[in-house]
Amino acid sequence: MIRLLDRDTINQIAAGEVVERPSSVVKELVENAIDAGSTAITVEIKEGGLSFIRITDNGAGIEKNEVRTAFLRHATSKLETAEDLNRLSFLGFRGEALASIAAVSETSLLTKTKDSILGTRYEIHGGEEVAFEEIGCPGGTTIIVRNLFYNTPARKKFMKTPMTEGGYIEELVRRLAMSNPNIAFQFILNGQNRLSTSGNGRLKEVIYQIYGRDITRNLIEIEGIGEHIKMTGYIGKPFINRGNRSYENYFVNGRYMKNQTITKAIEEAFRTFVMIHKFPFTVIDFELEPTMLDVNVHPQKLEMRYSDNENLYKVIYKTIQNALYDDELMPETTAGTIKEEKKEIVEERKQADSARVRVEPFEASRFASVKAEETKKFEEFEKKAPPIDKVVLNTTDKPVVKAEVTDIFKGMASYETPKKEEIPVVHEDVSIGYSEESKDSFSNEEKNEPKVSITLEKKANEDIVIEKAEQLRFISEDARPEHIIIGQLFKTYWLMEYGNEFFIMDQHAAHEKVMYERFMKKLKNSEIYSQSINPPMVVTLSPTEAAALNKYKTLFESCGFQVESFGGDEYMLRAVPEDIFGIAPKDVFMTLISSVTEDTGRIDDEIFVVKLSMMACKAAVKGNTSLSLKEANDLIDELLTLDNPYNCPHGRPTIIRMTKAEIEKKFHRIQD
Prior knowledge:
It contains 19 helices and 30 strands. The chain is an alpha+beta fold. An 8-stranded mixed β-sheet has the order 5-4-3-6-2-1-7-8, with helices on both faces. Helix 1 (7-18) packs across helix 4 (97-103), helix 2 (22-35) packs parallel to helix 6 and helix 14 (543-551) crosses helix 16 (585-598). The termini are far apart.
């Protein structure tokens, strides 16, 4: 028998889609508060949000005669017709949040519009109205959710510990704060203030409040502009990474969500800068044309589709790549031990936690004092921190103003090279032009401010502006004669001195990078030569692998492979690229075939080349191998000619540095 479901069953089914856990409740309610024009939002939870959630905002509020309607399914103030879905500019739009939450909890609402004298109190438990009355309350809306899933024990038993559920909510509030730096957020967990942002619109300050000084001082500001695309925000230098994607934060039109194209573009841009199985730090806001977006593809609005993925990928990849090709990517180590560094971090966090105070949502004066204190800490940090590099990529026809950058780095020598000499950096279409003064003015005694003029060459409607201060000159032809090679350590590391800094080079990582760049250059210039295998090797391919080989046969041949059918499912490998000869060519070939089939038969030529190049660098000199001084010098010379000499193809650093001051601190010659 077919029957219509009753309202309670319908609401609980809907709640199962929308309200997965306490963090889902917070997400829906905070997004509604943002859409209501709030400039201050407080989130308070207890016991992981299962027993108590309170969301308070100073937004527009709800009219008394609309309160009951707001708790009906598919009731919303943000849509009128289906056509409005094609130009969404709001976060919450399904109209199921309040109905779904109220169906599985005891929900209370306090709300007042600016023009009303009195507010409205409304209580609804398990979808049933309990109270509806006028009451005195501040402007805006407060929603309290108690005993979540009290009437759906099957869902409740799948919840994790209160600490874990509270962690999900804290992570969510952090992302909401980063995506809305113009809103003052406060998060209270079990009576303790865990996060306060000022709402002054400064994203960098929000990052500081969430991630602390170490990450904030290692940020690179980026801006990319393409057709119907604008991306702004910050990326971390490659050594700021995690073993999972928790550091990858990006927002589309103010909404935190996931998209495979964006994730892939970010990670591919960082590919040779971070180690394998490590993921970068990003806080990026994307402004995309709403008519080209589909955000209505997930019950919790966590995924989106975009109609021009190719252009989106290109803008993201190039913007991040250009930012990463920078002189400041060499890791700096300190003379302190790991145990000492961890102790300092723990102590700093303890002091920060002890300074956090309990702030009631309506105590505006205390809330303001907390925000002022947090802002003061950030401003003190910003005065001491070095300036953040900024990279702007413009792929539209709009002109970009050429930049001339001047920064102060005390103790660094000032020099300028002849105007006609152009050194390629960051991108093949960009070069740095220097002033007309001769580089003979270079002097280690000078303490002037180094000046760098950026000259842009436009090619194929593409402009790139790079604002960067020449903070480190170790990686430059001008500095090379001043390098002092001290010697080899543990038959693996080369120790060098330059100016007031001490450098350590990993010979294996450096040689890997040299071979990788060398092989990539050969591929780009079609200079790959094949090395015959005698006798040929016979490989057995599955039907899927054979189809992939036939589809990409031209690509394999251009890279130096010669493969012929040997009958049935067997193929004869007659030649391989000379750079991988002698390093298990059969295994290399099968790995490349697998990389094609794993991607369901689709592969990007550039990714294929990168995989092959990383295999070619296996022939690099290993650690625990003695090198002569001449061999070390030759390796350094070639390393310094690379676009990115700081990381091997697997993301490990090739060179690290330590300042003279850090060493003198360790020997107590100077005080901290």
